[in-house]
Each structure stands twice: as structure tokens, then as C-alpha cells.
Design brief:
The protein contains two helices and six strands. It has a single domain, classed as 60s Ribosomal Protein L30, Chain: A. Strands 1-2-3-6-4-5 form a six-stranded mixed sheet, covered by helices on one side. β4, α2 and β5 form a beta-alpha-beta unit. By secondary structure, it is of the alpha+beta class.
């Protein structure tokens, strides 16, 4: 098995010991993204919807660096510190994904890195 690190300057730099994504064969495993602006490495301004959009913009940038796009995502996991925001995530996803939507899990958590309230990771099939 070989693995190739994927990197995009259009997504936040890793804030720990991980790669933005790893490709093995035709699968790309995208690391979790929080709503960091890649230019400033600070949270994007705005409400929960704006932060969710930034998460998907970050995932999109990494998917594109891998030679794919978000419509090739086969599995998406969304982590939320408040499950009351689930409906907002659904609405935002409609702007980023086409049918058939990826398989997905939404997980309620007590905290996320840097105090974020939303994070998502994905598996992309090229």
C-alpha cells in the first residue's frame, strides 16, 4: 500500500501532526476541517452558517488538490457541539453537494479543536 499526502494552500495548514488528506489508490481521506480562514488561520467572521460554509470550502479546496470535487465524497462525518444546528448543516450541504448525497454521520460532541462548533471530515472516491 502506498500513501500520498495531499496539500492545498487554499485550505488551512495542519494545526497538528496530520496531513490535510491522504490518498491511497482511488480513495482520499480528508482530515477534519474547522471554520478557519486559510489566509489568517482564524475563525471566519459570521454566524453558524458562515462557519459551516467555511468548513465545506476548506474540504472543497483539499478535494480539488487531490484531483476531485465534493460530489465524489462517499462518506461525510459532521461533528457539532450543538445538534440544534443540524438543520443549518443540511441547508448548507445542499449548496455544496449534488444528489445522490454522500453517506453521512452527524455526531454531537462536547468540544472541538480551537473551540470550534462545527467540524467535518470526508472520504473521497476518485
Amino acid at each position: 500500500m502506498s500513501k500520498q499526502a495531499i496539500h492545498s494552500d487554499n485550505a488551512p495548514a495542519a494545526i497538528g501532526t496530520y496531513s490535510q488528506a491522504i490518498r491511497t489508490g482511488d480513495l482520499v481521506f480528508l482530515s477534519g476541517q474547522i471554520p478557519l480562514d486559510p489566509a489568517t488561520m482564524e475563525f471566519v467572521d459570521g454566524d453558524f452558517e458562515a462557519r459551516t460554509r467555511q468548513v465545506f470550502d476548506n474540504l472543497k479546496a483539499v478535494a480539488e488538490a487531490a484531483g476531485g470535487d465534493l460530489n465524489q465524497v462517499v462518506k461525510l462525518t459532521v461533528f457539532l457541539t450543538d445538534l440544534a444546528n443540524f438543520a443549518t448543516v443540511n441547508g448548507v450541504m445542499e449548496d455544496y453537494f449534488e444528489r445522490p448525497f454522500p453517506a453521512r454521520a452527524a455526531v454531537g460532541v462536547t468540544s472541538l479543536p480551537k473551540g470550534a462548533d462545527v467540524e467535518a471530515d470526508a472520504v473521497l472516491a476518485l
